[in-house]
């Protein structure tokens, strides 16, 4: 009998090497009624090469806070699939969007409306790069690796830290990075953050709705990898009160015009538009974000809009290199780590490229609580 986890891993390995006889396993992943992720697997007869080969499926929405018990079926409509880094081979992970019995999008399916905006503004070629910050917790919800009942030394040596006592769980972060690349996700980088046991990965640049798809799948892979290390992932924007940085999801944005020579003019126009809708954007920028956007710890105030070149204390930052070249992108520093990327990229497209009659991201957000 296996006593240690190493022995169990060796036993499992024997079964993982068994031939699947041409069939593949598709793990369907979806966003539940609490903004968390769920998944379940199914066998398919053969290798999948395009999204329309994937069947619709369903699940019991009354167990995920997504439907009442008397009408509990929620439908899973595949929207994207990626190589499965856990099962490997031809096995895949499938991102599915949730629909109710009557065909309407389920309450946490914000992809449906956001996709309409991106389709309407296809020619603007809007790109996003999101910086996902998050915090590692142990099984008992203490910050991973911190001294029991105490605190590590104050912030300073941890951001991009190197060396024992300055960096935590590099193994988990490395595993997640490789898993994302294996799956074909556009991870542009990773770094350790200012608070010890806080990390960041960046997804992008991706066009339109693809950013939201990839971000949700990157989060899924992170939770799955973390299971193996017995570590919990927290996306709370201020996991610890006091002199510890919060966690955000900086949203970098550009349109085709902004990326071309002279693009600065369009970046300035976009910032002007954003300044007029600050309150509407903030509503969609994550729960408990008021605990993070205090004007301290490299954040701007929640109640006042500001922008500046290379200013990490403003709502919107124009990177120094962009100002120098006169074109590129801008960074919205307001979004919290627990955002729904579909909502944030959706309203960004709505504000920068223009509203359309058939989709309104503010209304879309309010549907969550209805
Ligand atoms: P920071 O200096 O704020 O920590 P990062 O390097 O963490 O910046 O993240 C920058 C993000 O900006 C990356 O996700 C990158 O993909 C994205 N990015 C780069 N160029 C563009 C662009 N033209 N449009 C949108 N996003 C971009
Ligand atoms: Mn960053
Ligand atoms: Mn960061
Ligand atoms: Mn940033």
Automatic annotation (TrEMBL):
Domain (GS catalytic) spans: 110-370
Q: Which SMART domains match?
A: Gln-synt_C
Q: What is its EC number?
A: 6.3.1.2
Q: Which reaction(s) does its UniProt entry say it catalyses?
A: L-glutamate + NH4(+) + ATP = L-glutamine + ADP + phosphate + H(+)
Tell me which SUPFAM superfamilies the record gives. Answer: Glutamine synthetase, N-terminal domain, Glutamine synthetase/guanido kinase
UniProt keyword terms in alphabetical order: ATP-binding, Ligase, Nucleotide-binding
Q: Which InterPro entries match?
A: Gln_synt_N, Gln_synt_N_sf, Gln_synth/guanido_kin_cat_dom, Gln_synth_cat_dom, Gln_synth_gly_rich_site, Gln_synth_N_conserv_site, Glutamine_Synthetase
Q: Which PROSITE patterns match?
A: GLNA_1, GLNA_ATP, GS_BETA_GRASP, GS_CATALYTIC
Domain GS beta-grasp residue range list: 24-103
- Partners and quaternary state? Homooctamer.
- Which family, according to the similarity comment? Belongs to the glutamine synthetase family.
UniProt protein name: Glutamine synthetase
GN (gene name): SUVZ16G3140
């Amino acid at each position: 009998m296996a006593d240690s986890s190493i022995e169990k891993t060796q036993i499992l390995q024997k079964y993982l090497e068994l031939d699947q006889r041409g069939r593949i396993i598709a793990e369907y992943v979806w966003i539940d009624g609490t903004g968390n992720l769920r998944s379940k697997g199914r066998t398919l007869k053969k290798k999948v090469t395009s999204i329309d080969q994937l069947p619709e499926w369903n699940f019991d929405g009354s167990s995920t806070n997504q439907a009442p018990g008397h009408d509990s079926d929620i439908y899973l409509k595949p929207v994207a699939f990626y190589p499965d880094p856990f099962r490997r081979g031809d096995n895949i992970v499938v991102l599915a969007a949730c629909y109710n019995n009557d065909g309407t999008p389920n309450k946490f399916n914000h992809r449906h409306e956001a996709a309409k905006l991106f389709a309407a503004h296809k020619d603007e070629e809007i790109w996003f790069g999101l910086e996902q910050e998050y915090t590692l917790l142990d099984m008992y919800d203490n910050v991973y690796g911190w001294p029991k009942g105490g605190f590590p030394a104050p912030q300073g040596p941890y951001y991009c830290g190197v060396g024992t006592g300055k960096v935590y769980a590099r193994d988990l972060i490395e595993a997640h990075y490789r898993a994302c690349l294996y799956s074909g996700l556009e991870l542009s980088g990773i770094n350790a953050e200012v608070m010890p046991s806080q990390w960041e990965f960046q997804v992008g640049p991706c066009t339109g709705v693809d950013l939201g798809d990839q971000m949700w799948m990157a989060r899924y892979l992170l939770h799955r990898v973390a299971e193996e290390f017995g570590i919990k992932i927290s996306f709370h924007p201020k996991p610890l009160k006091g002199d510890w940085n919060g966690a955000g999801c900086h949203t970098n944005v550009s349109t085709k015009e902004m990326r071309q020579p002279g693009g600065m003019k369009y970046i300035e126009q976009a910032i002007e538009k954003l300044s007029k809708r600050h309150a509407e954007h903030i509503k969609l920028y994550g729960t408990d974000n008021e605990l993070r956007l205090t004007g301290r710890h490299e954040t701007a105030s929640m109640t006042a809009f500001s922008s500046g070149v290379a200013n990490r204390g403003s709502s919107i930052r124009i990177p120094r290199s962009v100002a120098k070249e006169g074109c590129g992108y801008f960074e919205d520093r307001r979004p919290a780590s627990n955002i729904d990327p579909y909502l944030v990229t959706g309203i960004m497209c709505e504000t920068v490229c223009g509203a359309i009659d058939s989709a309104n991201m503010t209304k879309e957000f309010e549907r969550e609580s209805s």
